[in-house]
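Q: I'm building a small set of examples for a reading group on sequence design. Run inverse folding on the following structure and report the sequence directly after it, with nothing in between.
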Protein backbone atom coordinates (compact mmCIF):
# COMPACT_ATOMS: atom_id res chain seq x y z
CA UNK A 1 0.00 0.00 0.00
CA UNK A 2 1.07 3.59 -0.60
CA UNK A 3 1.57 5.59 2.57
CA UNK A 4 2.48 9.22 3.17
CA UNK A 5 3.58 11.71 5.78
CA UNK A 6 3.15 15.44 5.31
CA UNK A 7 5.89 17.66 6.72
CA UNK A 8 5.43 21.47 6.59
CA UNK A 9 8.64 23.14 5.42
CA UNK A 10 10.01 26.66 4.80
CA UNK A 11 8.67 29.89 6.34
CA UNK A 12 5.67 29.48 4.00
CA UNK A 13 4.63 26.23 5.80
CA UNK A 14 4.51 24.33 2.53
CA UNK A 15 3.08 20.82 2.82
CA UNK A 16 5.93 18.62 1.62
CA UNK A 17 4.89 14.96 1.50
CA UNK A 18 7.01 11.85 1.88
CA UNK A 19 5.26 8.99 0.03
CA UNK A 20 6.35 5.39 0.16
CA UNK A 21 5.52 1.81 -0.78
CA UNK A 22 5.15 -0.18 2.40
CA UNK A 23 6.13 -3.40 0.62
CA UNK A 24 9.56 -2.16 -0.50
CA UNK A 25 10.10 0.88 1.78
CA UNK A 26 11.13 2.88 -1.28
CA UNK A 27 10.11 6.52 -1.00
CA UNK A 28 9.71 9.74 -2.96
CA UNK A 29 9.48 13.28 -1.65
CA UNK A 30 6.86 15.53 -3.22
CA UNK A 31 7.90 19.21 -3.33
CA UNK A 32 11.07 19.40 -1.22
CA UNK A 33 10.99 23.16 -0.90
CA UNK A 34 13.51 23.38 1.93
CA UNK A 35 14.43 22.16 5.43
CA UNK A 36 16.27 19.24 3.86
CA UNK A 37 17.78 17.96 7.11
CA UNK A 38 14.33 17.79 8.67
CA UNK A 39 13.00 15.80 5.74
CA UNK A 40 15.92 13.38 5.74
CA UNK A 41 15.50 12.85 9.49
CA UNK A 42 11.89 11.79 8.88
CA UNK A 43 12.95 9.45 6.07
CA UNK A 44 15.47 7.85 8.40
CA UNK A 45 13.00 7.63 11.28
CA UNK A 46 10.54 5.79 9.03
CA UNK A 47 13.23 3.38 7.82
CA UNK A 48 12.77 4.35 4.17
CA UNK A 49 15.05 4.40 1.15
CA UNK A 50 14.64 7.69 -0.69
CA UNK A 51 14.79 7.05 -4.45
CA UNK A 52 13.34 10.13 -6.19
CA UNK A 53 11.92 13.64 -5.95
CA UNK A 54 8.55 14.63 -7.48
CA UNK A 55 7.53 18.22 -8.16
CA UNK A 56 4.06 19.67 -8.61
CA UNK A 57 5.46 23.04 -9.70
CA UNK A 58 8.55 25.20 -9.37
CA UNK A 59 7.71 28.02 -6.98
CA UNK A 60 10.44 28.53 -4.38
CA UNK A 61 8.55 27.06 -1.40
CA UNK A 62 7.90 23.86 -3.36
CA UNK A 63 11.15 23.46 -5.28
CA UNK A 64 13.80 25.46 -3.41
CA UNK A 65 15.57 22.48 -1.84
CA UNK A 66 15.23 20.18 -4.84
CA UNK A 67 18.49 20.85 -6.67
CA UNK A 68 20.65 20.57 -3.56
CA UNK A 69 18.92 17.39 -2.35
CA UNK A 70 19.11 15.74 -5.79
CA UNK A 71 22.80 16.59 -6.09
CA UNK A 72 23.63 15.43 -2.58
CA UNK A 73 21.95 12.01 -2.85
CA UNK A 74 22.15 11.55 -6.64
CA UNK A 75 18.35 11.40 -6.95
CA UNK A 76 16.27 11.84 -10.11
CA UNK A 77 13.94 14.83 -10.27
CA UNK A 78 10.54 13.91 -11.71
CA UNK A 79 8.36 16.79 -12.91
CA UNK A 80 6.85 19.22 -13.21
CA UNK A 81 5.48 19.88 -16.73
CA UNK A 82 7.84 21.79 -19.09
CA UNK A 83 5.64 24.88 -18.76
CA UNK A 84 7.44 25.64 -15.49
CA UNK A 85 10.95 25.76 -16.98
CA UNK A 86 11.09 29.54 -16.52
CA UNK A 87 10.24 29.17 -12.83
CA UNK A 88 13.05 26.61 -12.41
CA UNK A 89 15.48 28.93 -14.17
CA UNK A 90 14.44 31.70 -11.80
CA UNK A 91 14.85 29.78 -8.54
CA UNK A 92 18.05 31.64 -7.50
CA UNK A 93 16.25 34.96 -7.98
CA UNK A 94 13.13 33.67 -6.21
CA UNK A 95 15.21 32.68 -3.18
CA UNK A 96 16.69 36.18 -2.93
CA UNK A 97 13.35 37.89 -3.40
CA UNK A 98 11.55 35.93 -0.69
CA UNK A 99 14.43 35.64 1.77
CA UNK A 100 14.98 31.89 1.34
CA UNK A 101 18.35 30.13 1.51
CA UNK A 102 20.12 30.19 -1.87
CA UNK A 103 18.37 27.87 -4.31
CA UNK A 104 19.90 26.38 -7.42
CA UNK A 105 18.21 25.80 -10.74
CA UNK A 106 18.26 22.29 -12.19
CA UNK A 107 17.12 20.25 -15.15
CA UNK A 108 14.48 17.66 -14.27
CA UNK A 109 15.48 14.10 -15.03
CA UNK A 110 12.01 13.61 -16.47
CA UNK A 111 9.35 16.14 -17.40
CA UNK A 112 5.72 15.12 -16.84
CA UNK A 113 2.64 15.44 -19.06
CA UNK A 114 -1.05 14.85 -18.52
CA UNK A 115 -1.81 11.13 -18.35
CA UNK A 116 1.69 10.05 -17.31
CA UNK A 117 2.34 7.79 -14.35
CA UNK A 118 5.12 7.70 -11.77
CA UNK A 119 6.15 4.70 -9.70
CA UNK A 120 7.64 4.28 -6.26
CA UNK A 121 8.36 0.71 -5.23
CA UNK A 122 5.35 -1.35 -6.31
CA UNK A 123 2.96 1.61 -6.30
CA UNK A 124 1.89 3.58 -9.37
CA UNK A 125 0.56 7.12 -9.15
CA UNK A 126 -1.27 8.99 -11.90
CA UNK A 127 -0.27 12.44 -13.18
CA UNK A 128 -2.64 15.20 -14.29
CA UNK A 129 -1.48 18.47 -15.79
CA UNK A 130 -3.40 21.20 -13.96
CA UNK A 131 -2.26 24.63 -15.17
CA UNK A 132 -3.51 27.95 -13.84
CA UNK A 133 -1.46 28.62 -10.72
CA UNK A 134 1.60 28.01 -12.89
CA UNK A 135 1.58 26.82 -16.51
CA UNK A 136 3.46 23.61 -15.71
CA UNK A 137 1.65 22.56 -12.52
CA UNK A 138 0.90 18.84 -12.15
CA UNK A 139 -1.09 16.85 -9.60
CA UNK A 140 -0.28 13.35 -8.31
CA UNK A 141 -3.35 11.10 -7.90
CA UNK A 142 -3.20 7.83 -5.97
CA UNK A 143 -6.65 6.26 -6.51
CA UNK A 144 -5.64 3.11 -4.62
CA UNK A 145 -5.75 5.13 -1.38
CA UNK A 146 -8.16 7.86 -2.57
CA UNK A 147 -5.57 10.60 -2.18
CA UNK A 148 -4.38 13.43 -4.43
CA UNK A 149 -1.36 15.66 -3.89
CA UNK A 150 -2.52 18.87 -5.55
CA UNK A 151 0.15 21.46 -4.77
CA UNK A 152 -1.28 24.95 -5.03
CA UNK A 153 -4.23 24.21 -7.35
CA UNK A 154 -6.84 23.85 -4.60
CA UNK A 155 -6.99 24.46 -0.85
CA UNK A 156 -9.53 23.83 1.89
CA UNK A 157 -11.85 26.78 1.32
CA UNK A 158 -9.75 28.46 -1.35
CA UNK A 159 -7.92 28.06 -4.67
CA UNK A 160 -4.43 28.83 -5.93
CA UNK A 161 -3.31 32.36 -6.74
CA UNK A 162 -3.24 33.32 -10.40
CA UNK A 163 -1.55 36.72 -10.16
CA UNK A 164 1.96 35.34 -10.68
CA UNK A 165 3.61 35.45 -14.12
CA UNK A 166 1.73 33.19 -16.56
CA UNK A 167 -0.99 32.44 -14.01
CA UNK A 168 -4.47 32.08 -15.51
CA UNK A 169 -7.67 32.08 -13.44
CA UNK A 170 -9.87 30.49 -16.11
CA UNK A 171 -7.33 27.73 -16.65
CA UNK A 172 -7.19 27.09 -12.91
CA UNK A 173 -10.96 26.72 -12.62
CA UNK A 174 -10.95 24.37 -15.63
CA UNK A 175 -8.18 22.30 -14.02
CA UNK A 176 -10.18 21.94 -10.82
CA UNK A 177 -13.53 21.16 -12.41
CA UNK A 178 -12.34 19.03 -15.32
CA UNK A 179 -9.37 17.20 -13.82
CA UNK A 180 -9.77 17.13 -10.05
CA UNK A 181 -13.52 16.63 -9.59
CA UNK A 182 -13.59 13.44 -11.74
CA UNK A 183 -11.24 11.85 -9.20
CA UNK A 184 -14.31 11.52 -6.97
CA UNK A 185 -15.96 13.31 -4.06
CA UNK A 186 -14.46 10.88 -1.53
CA UNK A 187 -10.89 11.64 -2.58
CA UNK A 188 -8.88 13.39 0.13
CA UNK A 189 -6.46 15.97 -1.20
CA UNK A 190 -3.24 17.18 0.31
CA UNK A 191 -2.85 20.86 -0.63
CA UNK A 192 0.36 22.83 -0.80
CA UNK A 193 -0.62 24.74 2.35
CA UNK A 194 -3.12 24.23 5.13
CA UNK A 195 -5.31 21.28 6.14
CA UNK A 196 -6.48 18.37 4.02
CA UNK A 197 -10.02 18.30 2.66
CA UNK A 198 -12.07 16.24 0.19
CA UNK A 199 -13.12 17.12 -3.32
CA UNK A 200 -16.73 16.56 -2.31
CA UNK A 201 -16.51 19.06 0.52
CA UNK A 202 -14.94 21.67 -1.73
CA UNK A 203 -17.52 21.09 -4.47
CA UNK A 204 -20.22 21.88 -1.93
CA UNK A 205 -18.72 24.71 0.09
CA UNK A 206 -15.62 26.26 -1.49
CA UNK A 207 -16.49 29.93 -2.21
CA UNK A 208 -14.54 29.88 -5.48
CA UNK A 209 -15.63 26.55 -7.00
CA UNK A 210 -18.58 25.42 -4.87
CA UNK A 211 -21.47 24.18 -6.95
CA UNK A 212 -19.34 23.41 -10.00
Amino acid sequence: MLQYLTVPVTPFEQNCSIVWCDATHEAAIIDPGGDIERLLAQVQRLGLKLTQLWLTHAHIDHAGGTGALAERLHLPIIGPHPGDQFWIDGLPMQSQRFGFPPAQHFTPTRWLSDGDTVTVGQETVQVRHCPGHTPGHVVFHAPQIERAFVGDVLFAGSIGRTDFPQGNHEQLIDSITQRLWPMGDATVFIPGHGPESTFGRERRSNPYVGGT
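The two ends are 32 Å apart (CA to CA).
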